[in-house]
Design a protein that fits this description.
Number of strands: 0
Keywords: Membrane, Transmembrane, Transmembrane helix
Pfam family, one: DUF6691
Protein name: YeeE/YedE family protein
Length: 145
């Protein structure tokens, strides 16, 4: 049942990305081009997402437990550390250079263009590099202790 709901909500999200045009990197890049061909539609998409999220959180947190899980899985770490800031910066730079956010990338992977595939490969490579760097640091810290 959980898998069916995950598929349905993923499909709904992907359709929303495609209908809004956020799968088109030119539309996203035009949002960042405030001195040229600025396109505010990304701000409206983000605003709509924030509104839906705010309403959803208000409704969900009134529940004793989630519908499809035993408990809510909320982050506990509230520290603003170098990993969070660095990862956010790398994410923003990649988004600004490619025009693809991972949420907008996945729905367009199958359309046969090379740019989404290259961006996807770069994201996977970045994730693997980060995992390697973290595990190397962990092994180094453990060896010193």
């Amino acid at each position: 049942m959980r898998l069916l709901f995950a598929f349905a909500f993923g499909l709904l999200f992907g359709c929303g990305i495609l209908i809004s045009g956020m799968g088109n990197p030119a539309k996203v890049l035009n949002f960042f081009d405030v001195a040229g061909t600025w396109d505010p539609s990304l701000a409206f998409v983000m605003g709509g997402a924030l509104l839906v999220t705010a309403i959803g959180y208000r409704l969900i947190f009134r529940m004793q437990q989630p519908l499809l899980a035993q408990a809510f899985a909320l982050p506990t770490n509230q520290d603003l550390d170098t990993r969070l800031v660095g990862g956010s910066a790398i994410f923003g730079i990649g988004w600004g250079l490619s025009g693809f956010c991972p949420g907008g990338l996945v729905p367009v992977l199958g359309i046969g263009l090379m740019e989404p595939l290259l961006t996807f490969a770069a994201i996977i490579a970045g994730m693997l590099a980060a995992r390697w760097a973290i595990s190397t640091r962990y092994r180094s810290d453990t060896a010193q202790a």
